[in-house]
């Protein structure tokens, strides 16, 4: 249900962080100002987090009042592909459409000008997409603000929308505020924004292109082994610390077991390979090319069954979680077959110029075209016969040589016979219908 609500609200949320309005309005005067860390360029620090993992967001506050404040509360709100793990016992969590929120209470006294902060747990959904990514939004209030409205449990209840129930975290501990030197903004506000950088590795599978910019189609003959000019680029926000290649060839295409860093396997009508490369592919759109991956056509290959090779790229950390390429190849092997490494040399991946198309995917299909020759040569024309121009030219009906007279005579006789036959046929038809 939450995924559907996320998708429906994605477009609205990325414009000026258009969050559904909280049930509780903020005080008009700024007593507390939100603060956060700044980088060397004076910009808010963006804290990294990966899809499916929990990261931190530094949430800070400063007391601008002349008097100490006996406790503060904060409302934390995240949108779309961000989640708030329900871990803190001094927070009341709620859901409002595409928003997850929490009201948290701190009993700590804040004196004037003191900046305090906490590392707050924020998670990225497993399928988090940069297109559905935003910022952590905070609103700070004196504790008296919440007390006058029935406490943070009541505030969370008022903000909660839908079937989910608000409630405290169950992680076994409370979130706390501690002194931290943080810059106070020139225009202080009780509303703060903290950036999280979604660390996504997005690999794009590449194929060489022809002069027209089209993906290469590779000619191949029966029994021949050829090289495919394949590559990869990282279009994401996080580097790939090593990459893994999967190749699958179908029907009359085979994968010669050449490369020692590949695990080859067979499953029914396909041959596959999982290959591993240790080098880092940075998230800067630089392109890397293989030293030609080899495929072969069987000796009896047919054109309709030598068309397709499927190519896919994955981050190495993904394959490591599956137990490595040998374990993955074993899982994909057909019954009664055993995967094995190649026996000649390692397949390498090196920086090289390749074209990144407008539309990309981690998986592509690479096409081959079976080249065949006639089973028997066409007989050459007799030297005594007439000379005939090549078919398809205007001269193809021109006949020259000593046989011209005979051809004309025979042609005239045939025309005359045809005319006589037509006359007879007309007469017969007339007498039949009379």
From TrEMBL:
Keywords: Membrane, Signal, Transmembrane, Transmembrane helix
Residue ranges of the TM segments: 406-425
Span of the signal peptide: 1-25
Domain of life (superkingdom): Bacteria
Protein name per its UniProtKB record: Gram-positive cocci surface proteins LPxTG domain-containing protein
Organism annotation: Paractinoplanes rishiriensis
Highest classification ranks of the organism: Bacteria, Bacillati, Actinomycetota, Actinomycetes, Micromonosporales
